[in-house]
């Protein structure tokens, strides 16, 4: 179904027939063109009539929306904070993740037991 909505700069879209994702980067109303960038970085420009004939829908930005962007530094993304601290990095690896607690009577290497396969 062709889209009747005007293109929105910075909005991500998915082409329903072809499956590719892209972001609108510019709209020139005087020239009647829409410029967009595919997720792989390729730029494309089409006329507004072609835009309205496309079978697309607006989507949320991809999880890794930096795919088409050049020279993006992690610090520029605004989410450099993590839930880990220096203490977390120094902790030894534990079986089953951070919340793992051995079952009562379960042998562990730290207790000098003979773990499975020993």
What is the overall pLDDT average? 75
Strand order of the largest sheet: 4-3-2-1-5
Give the SSE order as H and E letters.
EEEEHEH
Please tell me how large the radius of gyration is.
Answer: 25 Å
Provide the structure class.
Answer: mainly beta
Beta strands, count: 5
Oligomer: single chain
Distance between the termini: 63 Å
Q: Name the CATH architecture of the domain at 1-63.
A: Roll
CATH class of the domain at 1-63: Mainly Beta
CATH fold label of the domain at 1-63: SH3 type barrels
**Residue windows where pLDDT falls under 50 for at least 5 positions:** none
Please give the count of helices.
2
- Helix % is under 10%
The biggest sheet, with number of strands, parallel, antiparallel or mixed sense and barrel status, is: 5 strands, antiparallel
- Shape category: elongated
> Which percent band covers the strand fraction?
15-25%
């Amino acid at each position: 179904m062709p889209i009747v909505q005007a293109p929105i700069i910075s909005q991500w879209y998915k082409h329903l027939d072809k499956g590719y994702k892209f972001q609108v980067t510019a709209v020139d109303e005087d020239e009647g063109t829409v410029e967009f960038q595919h997720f792989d970085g390729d730029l494309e420009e089409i006329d507004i009539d072609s835009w309205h004939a496309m079978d697309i829908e607006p989507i949320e930005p991809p999880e890794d929306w930096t795919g088409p962007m050049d020279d993006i530094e992690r610090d520029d993304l605004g989410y450099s904070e993590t839930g880990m601290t220096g203490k977390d990095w120094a902790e030894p690896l534990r079986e089953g993740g951070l919340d793992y607690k051995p079952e009562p009577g379960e042998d562990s290497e730290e207790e000098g037991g003979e773990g499975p396969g020993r």
